Amino acid sequence: MEKYVLLIAALYGALGIIFGAFGAHALKKILSDDLLKSFETGVKYQMYHAIVLLVIGFQFSFTESLETAIAWCFIAGTFLFSFSIYGLCISSAKGKKLRFLGPITPLGGLLLVIGWILLGVSFL
């Protein structure tokens, strides 16, 4: 599990850099200021959680189910939160907002919150 978490951390980190550059350059021309800020929020949260996954990948032994649950909450939460924001922003700019992505963003956020709460519980 450690290598899997570290691989996902590296992937999220690399994609965060790519999406950040894409947003700052290519999307700056087609997104409104509000949509660009939303896109940047997705990138920030993705990078924050890539770093968290990197740390827990090195620190956890993943012998306890709590550690595995924390990792999965961060992996799934980051994917649902950030990537739904990217989809909403880009589809809005194209004039065909993918509304089904709207409810996915808070679900991803909820998984991130649960991951942080479980991380706190693991310290007890």
Automatic annotation (TrEMBL):
Please list every transmembrane segment annotated in the UniProt record, as residue ranges: 6-27, 69-88, 100-119
Main localisation, per the record?
A: membrane
The compartments listed are: Membrane
Q: Give the InterPro entries listed for this entry.
A: DUF423
Give the keywords, sorted. Answer: Membrane, Transmembrane, Transmembrane helix
Membrane topology, as annotated: Multi-pass membrane protein
Q: What family name appears in the similarity comment?
A: Belongs to the UPF0382 family.
* Classification via PANTHER family: TRANSMEMBRANE PROTEIN 256
> What's the name of the protein?
DUF423 domain-containing protein
Question: To which species is this protein native?
Answer: Kordia aestuariivivens
